[in-house]
Amino acid sequence: MNKGLFIVIEGIDGSGKGTQSKRLKSWLTDKNKHATTHSVFHTMEPTGGKIGVLLRNALKDGTIAPKILALLFAADRIEHCKEIEQHLEEGKIVISDRYLYSSIAYQGSQGVDKEWIMEINKFSLIPDIVFYLDITPESGLKRIFSRAKSYEHLKNEQKERDYLEKIDSLEKVRKNYLKLADENPFFVTINAEKTRKEVQGSIRKVMGRLLKAGKTSNDKDLRYFL
Ligand SMILES: Nc1ncnc2c1ncn2[C@@H]1O[C@H](COP(=O)(O)OP(=O)(O)OP(=O)(O)O)[C@@H](O)[C@H]1O
Ligand SMILES: [Mg+2]
């Protein structure tokens, strides 16, 4: 039986998954701030493993069919879950930046059947909590573009079309995430439009409650505690 906790951070591009998952790790490992005895393992998808690297190249290529991407993500996740399980068995808190729900939200938005995605991922571990960072595609992309200092893109017509297309596709991804949040009691929706500090505060509040109650993975009543 797992003694750790499996935490997933999900959300569309630019919602703050990287920022928040790393801040959560720092908070949990800072013994002065929080009295948890768990060590923390931070991870992400796609992984840095062989399939993960293949997948990153397939994503860059841009011409690989969504069904094939879904299969590659599922294959990468088989290796990922093995690693996650080991850490959980050692009693660690595992924080994953993206997981199975990215497959459902993204490949699902490209017309891949949700039931089939679930089927090819049926060996995946179920997380204890998914923090879903909810943000509009406009705000998410604005953050990414300001990071890349490429507001120039709006001056070029082709690039403006690409931008609008991206907004449109992220709108579909967001809808899928909202549906997942609605269907799964272990999803916690966080308003990610707020400042980094406020978003982190909301995440810590839920984590703090869980840790205080001494919840660990596989506690059947965990999802009802939230
Ligand atoms: N709450 C926030 N307010 C303003 N800017 C933010 C906030 N959270 C993150 N950012 C900034 O927005 C950018 C995107 O954040 P981050 O990389 O954490 O998002 P992400 O969800 O991991 O994105 P991606 O899906 O592209 O990997 C970064 O430059 C980050 O510093
Ligand atoms: Mg990121």
Report what the structure shows:
The chain has 226 residues and is α/β, with parallel strands linked by helices. It has a single domain (5-217), classed as Rossmann fold. The chain has 9 helices and 5 strands, in the order βαβααβααβααβαα. It has helices spanning 17-29, 50-61, 66-89, 100-109, 114-120, 137-147, 157-183, 196-212, 222-225; strands spanning 5-10, 40-44, 93-97, 129-134, 187-191. The protein has a 5-stranded parallel β-sheet, with helices on both faces. Helix 2 (50-61) packs antiparallel against helix 3 and helix 4 packs across helix 7. The structure holds adenosine-5'-triphosphate and magnesium ion (MG). Magnesium ion (MG) binds at residues 17-18, 97.
What are the main properties of this structure?
226 residues, alpha/beta, Rossmann fold, 5-stranded parallel β-sheet, 5 strands, 12% strand, binds adenosine-5'-triphosphate, binds magnesium ion
Give the arrangement of secondary structure elements.
Layout lengths: L4 E6 L6 H13 L10 E5 L5 H12 L4 H24 L3 E5 L2 H10 L4 H7 L8 E6 L2 H11 L9 H27 L3 E5 L4 H17 L9 H4 L1
Parallel strand pairs: 1-3, 1-4, 2-3, 4-5
Q: How would you sum up this structure in a few lines?
A:
The protein has nine helices and five strands.
Name the hetero compounds present. Answer: adenosine-5'-triphosphate, magnesium ion
| Structural class by sheet pairing and helices | alpha/beta
Helix count from the secondary structure assignment: 9
> In oligomeric terms, what are we looking at?
single chain
Q: Could you spell the SSE succession in H and E letters?
A: EHEHHEHHEHHEHH
CATH architecture type: 3-Layer(aba) Sandwich
How many DSSP-defined strands? 5
Rg from C-alpha positions? 18 Å
Largest sheet features: 5 strands, parallel
What's the name of the CATH homologous superfamily? Answer: P-loop containing nucleotide triphosphate hydrolases
- Tell me the helix content: 55-70%
CATH topology descriptor: Rossmann fold
Strand order of the largest sheet: 2-3-1-4-5
Provide the low-confidence segments as ranges: none
Shape: globular
